[in-house]
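pasting input
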Amino acid sequence: MSKGKYKWIGTRPDRPDGADKVTGRARFGADFNMPGQLVGKVLRSPHAHAVIKSIDASAALALPGVKAVVSAVDFPDQPNLIVPTGEMQVNLRDITRNVMAREKALYEGHPVAAVAATTEAVAKAALDLIKVEYEVLPHVIDVADAMKEDAPILHDHLITEGVKPAPTKPSNIAKRIDNLKGDIEAGFKQAEIVVERHYTTQAVHQGYIEPHATLASAAEDGQIQLWSTTQGHFQVRGFCSRLLNIETSQIRVTPTEIGGGFGGKTVVYLEPIAVRLSQKSGKPVKMVMSRDEVFRASGPAPGGTVHVKIGAKRDGTIVAAECTIALQAGAFPGSPVGPACWTSFACYDIPNIKVVGYDVVSNRPKVAAYRAPGAPISAWGVESTVDILAQELRMDPIDLRLKNAAKKGTKTSYGPTFDTIGFVETLEAAKASEHYKSKPRAGMSRGVAAGFWFNVGADSSAAAHVAEDGTVTIISGNPDIGGSRASLALMAAEELGVDYSKVRPVIADTSSIGFNFVTGGSRVTFATGLAVVNSVRDMIRELKVRAAKTWGVDPDGVIWEDGCAKPAGSNVGEFEPLSLAQLAATAGRTGGPINGHAQLNAQGAGPGFGVHIVDLAVDRDTGIVTVDRYTAAQDVGTAIHPSYVEGQLQGGAVQGVGWALNEEYIYGSKGRLDNAGFLDYRMPVASDLPMIETILVEVPNPHHPYGVRGVGEVPIVPPLAAVGNAVARSTGIRLTDLPLSPPRLSAAIDAATPRMAAE
Amino acid sequence: MNDIRYSAPHTIDEAVGALLAAKGTGRILAGGTDLLVQMKAGMALPGAIIDVKNIVEMSAIEDKGGGAFRVGAAVSGARIGEHAALKKAWPGVVEAINLIGSKQIQGRASPGGNLCNASPAADSVPALIAAGAIVAVHGPNGRREVAVEKIQIGPGKTSLQPGEIVVSFSLPARPAGSSDAYLRLIPRTEMDIAVVGCGVSLTMKDGVCTAARVGLGAVAPTVMLVEAAGAALVGSKLDAEALEKAAAACRAVCKPINDKRGTIVYRTKIAGVLLKRVAAIAAERAGGR
Ligand SMILES: Cc1cc2nc3c(=O)[nH]c(=O)nc-3n(C[C@H](O)[C@H](O)[C@H](O)COP(=O)(O)OP(=O)(O)OC[C@H]3O[C@@H](n4cnc5c(N)ncnc54)[C@H](O)[C@@H]3O)c2cc1C
């Protein structure tokens, strides 16, 4: 741990938002209300694919208590223009159609109209009175089916990008991506052993406990106020501005406390609708999704197919690697197939790589980001294949990875060359762990897998204010989804040399701080942390100026140390140090309030690597998997607040285990989701898992003053294959289709042991 | 929005009267862990709710001696789990009821509600069927007694007549060397719904099984008494052959569906797997094979 080097960084104080959260005082999305507010509800398509021939809302509008109805005609059409949102990209033409269906309903749950009424009951009754005439079309759910020649086409304008010559006919393949390094054919010729497998995964939901919720108030003078549970209130502002043709500065978005996001709250669903309903009705409008709506209409992570081929020498040196990935985009283009491709072999230093990716639309809700978007899917294929290679070569799975590990100077298949990274250190830490050194308990089998994520930087703004008594407020603009307020305050306390308790971090609304890109890409502690450090440095510069004025010396003659201004040396003069409180008390006489500001586009985000070890048992009669022990090791740069870093590793591991074992979107023959709730969408419950052990490997990022790397996404990448590899070693059967649910695992075991099936 | 009339009578006759007066729109409320969820989902829109928790007979556990008990239909799972004598006499019935939901749900959920909600996956019902529980039903024409397996007639459907309420469950006295057990298969460890549930009650004498009843849930439209499975165990030492015969009997009565919770093949197989495991636990509790 970094303790020793620092006073505050590496310690574990209570989080600033902790007391409010454990006492129920914290206000989440659905906790905001205004006088006279209406209830907004969305009418959703019951069909997976249908032309909307007409919408007649006259009966709904005639119902007493109904104040407004909106449908696509209330939203201006948008240009074919791609804009970034978090780690994903969206097309404005598509996003307005996802918020409110225009020509066609493209998935079950697609919004078709919305009402605002005085009560929830009236709003629900009004939905039943809206007459929508549909022409139901054939639908397609599966990626492989959607890629077929005769598949129902979702978008007549969709011509596959990235293929030359460009196809002349529309298809459901939005894009093809190609990554090449070296000479793949020559590479495989050198191989002494080749392993090739085909893998599939199912769509999974981020599963945040708090459903999407918003409160919108459009005033008569055109000003808009919004409260929203979101990972990016600046993105909410930006989307509402674009989709509704409202000047950006007229919209003020306040982020609420957030009950989980995991990437799924980086896009807009309800907000533009609520604003439009508020504008039409002249009243504030509150909208809260039900869990059913969250599952049917908010972004899951994609399912997909991954075909992997790896060639190696007998000593384990990987000489060539190839994979083809096709991911569900949902109803509109924009799956995370790019990152799935780029991360696929990023853990390894392989001379010859070929990666091909396809972005495929089908009649499912549009996918959204979910922790390391795309990476767990390609890692499921690649890390399973690497494990097969280790088994066939009779090599220790960590040794095989060490032999091929990416290091500083390794050139990736997608372009960049790695700077200082900690994959080797992480593998070594996993290997040296008490877990790995001890044998699995009786009946248990062990699996190992690795994972990679880039982490991002991007735009951040921050401010630091000295209060009249010398305490400090740190103002930033990223919703806190993982303890970032605590980490920002720790870095500010460290930089200032004052007690953590003297620093209060707050998250400002869009009108109270400069622009901040979304909370996503594991960027906040890195990029916004950098902005906070810079704003504190700016404030210290000002504090030194004030001390210089007080002493009548040159500002260069003042240093900042242990929370005080001090003379730089005896030649400056003999002065007692001036504390923050003293400087604050005299601020009016030395130039007014003392503040610091910073804004930046953070470069140099440090990539992260994880290695997970799991011991588990398979009940051969029932196919039930019991996880006995789990360790997540990760290169975390510097653990600013180790508890929250450990929490990230544990949470990611648990979500990955759920993805591996039971979570999946199940569709009926009509293209309707069959398990839109937590009973039958099976995320793990607390009793399903042991305490997740963590190993924090600290290889500081050279591009951050405190060595911060993003840590929140890497830990969901390895678990799928770690679990699959342990199951394979337990049963002797290599399953390639997720989830490894009891019926599927049981069927595979029975197929491999015919005598038992007859039992 | 429709109005709901709520009443909480102190006698069964008043409750029956209120139920009849609601003319088919009335619903009994015990713990409400099914009813309120269904109302919230818009699947139930009762005109009257009759809370039966104030009715003493429905909220009491009576120890009748010799292992016989009368358990009120509205007693919560938590209170049943805390009743030491009942737990000792009927460990399988108690463990089945205690498997329902979580700690919070246990504070409310009742065996009467579990039975009358008529889910084929209801956890307490296979154990109650295996136990040979007799249900006291009170209605406009007074009281009748009926075997617990006669109440469910289809998913969400019971044989209760208009105005009828389940009052209590009677668990019979059993000879020495008797015990019972219940297991369910769920993909998770809790907060899940049975893919298959199996209850066995049996009596062992000198290592031989002299009586056995098997209840099987979640593999057909109702929870079933599998007489052939019980018969296969009786007279045996619960050896592999007898267990396999009983397991085969369980598989034979399965009429499951393929759905999000499991396949036909899987559910049918698991019915046999569970029978063997449950019979072994019950025999162990009864004092060995
Ligand atoms: C989170 C959660 C988890 C759950 N987990 C499980 C589980 O693991 N296993 C399981 O089996 N169930 C489970 N359930 C379902 C439910 O908790 C059980 O079925 C419970 O036993 C119902 O009892 P109750 O007293 O709450 O019934 P209520 O909701 O009060 O009643 C259920 C139905 O029976 C009727 N009714 C109730 N009592 C009588 C009576 N005496 N006479 C006639 N009709 C009556 C009611 O009108 C209603 O239709 C779960 C529910 C929830 C919400």
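fyi Chain A is about 30% helix and 25% strand.
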